[in-house]
Amino acid sequence: MAKTASQTPRASGSIRRRGTSFQIRVYAGINPETGEPHYLTATRPDMKAAKTERDRLVGLVASKRAPLTNGRFEHAIRQWLDSREAEVEAGELAAGTLRHYRQLAEDHVIPALGSITVGSLDQLLVQAAERLYAQLGKCRLRCGGRLPKEHYAAGQGNSRILRDLTGHKCGKRCKPHECARASASILRKIHGVITGTCSTLHRWGLIPSDTSKRIKAPKAAKPRPSAPTSAEVGKLIKVAFEQDADWGTVVWLLLVTGARRSEIASAQLQDVDFDRHLVFIDSTKVEGTSRWVALDDLTMALLIAHRERIAERLSVAGLAITGEEYLYSYKADHSAPGSLSYFSHRFSDMGVAIGIDTHPHAMRHYAATELVAGGVDIVSVARRLGHKSPSTTSDIYASWRPEADNRAVSILTSSLSLPSHLNQTRAERDFAAEQSGRTTPEIERRICELRTRTGWGPKRIQDHLAAEAISIAESTVWKVLQRHGLNTSKEIIDVR
Predict the structure, then answer these.
(1) Of 442, 365, 483, which is closest to residue 491 (Cα–Cα)?
(2) What residues pair up with 22 in beta bridges, in sequence order?
(3) What is the pLDDT of residues 306-351, one digit of tens each?
(4) How far apart are CA 160 and CA 280, in angstroms?
(5) Is 73 in contact with 59 (CB distance < 8 Å)?
(6) How many Å apart are CA 388 and CA 396, to the nearest integer?
(7) What is the value of pTM for the model shown?
(8) How far apart are CA 280 and CA 323, in angstroms?
């Protein structure tokens, strides 16, 4: 008697009727997570299509390309994130970095890719991931041009945008939506979540190959450090101390140490060596880059005064200094660091008040730039900033200064002379009338900032500046972008 479809040997799979369709089932091995037998399944409307699909699944098993789990990618992402907790405990990964990965996974990766089953990754992941990058490359909220307004919960500075508006009443934080592309850094971190999950699944033996290797990774943005001028830094320091002495001291430390905002926020009194004029900067980003940084007499005087103010506040509460008090804190006993988000907002608002578009990390750019321009060797600068490699310092932070370039040209021409009929002192001449239409540095910075932040073209940038009462020709905007290497979208980010 001939065997029916349902009696087909396990290695060749089986087909059975389920209502009006046919179900295919092929044994694929033992799931290493559960120790249970794992089967590939599918449903087709007719016997011919069912046999074709069965043959395909049998081929996957025979070639050892069949996944060993039917779980969703969402579950795999969360498993990968949980597995990295051990790295945090071992000090190999910053806790803040892992929190950031979790947020990106919940906000972007899981909503877009989480429903894909692990068994379908080989077929669906590449196209879905590249489509996600393209959407984020147009709008960081992936609104598709259909979000007129951004809604946020009242009183929560770090709250995410609200999707469910049930019971929501708009407050001062709700604002009209303006599409702005996700940064290159964010896109590459999202890509890291996807590739990290896939490589772990492959290492665990749950998928036969790392599908994420076929995804076209977002291109890294070119480093464009934005160091303020010495005059701007002087204004920022002055305003900071005018606001209050504690805040001025913290901003001053940010400048003289070249440390990151998070590193200054985590510093405690016990990290300051008042005898040797040193402060210990505990790295919050890269393992092995914590360091002692030398301080000058003026900075030490500021820190001694800061310590005395902390001691006075503690004495009011009947407490004594233990050394565990945070330098940046808004608590009376300095028992906890201040908010990093508020740090950034306060610093930026301070700049806006005096007409400077800046952020805390700009002080780090300034420190690196000034040290290199001042002749400090790149290895010493890298150590002070907490870089593992001096190349990071030279490639990213050490942007050139006009004064250094002027010294360079002086060195090149100092030993040379022109023929006597050319080497004559010329009368001073005012070229301003010939360059009346020249774009000011402030407008150029504004054009570049709009381009890098939003990815807009010259026409849209022109319209946006017109709304700010800045009149400029579209062709001039294009020339500015070209001059700064921002005239093509690939210079900003490649999401195709």
Answers:
(1) 483
(2) 17, 44
(3) 999 999 999 998 999 999 999 999 999 999 999 988 999 999 999 9
(4) 34
(5) no
(6) 13
(7) 0.59
(8) 13
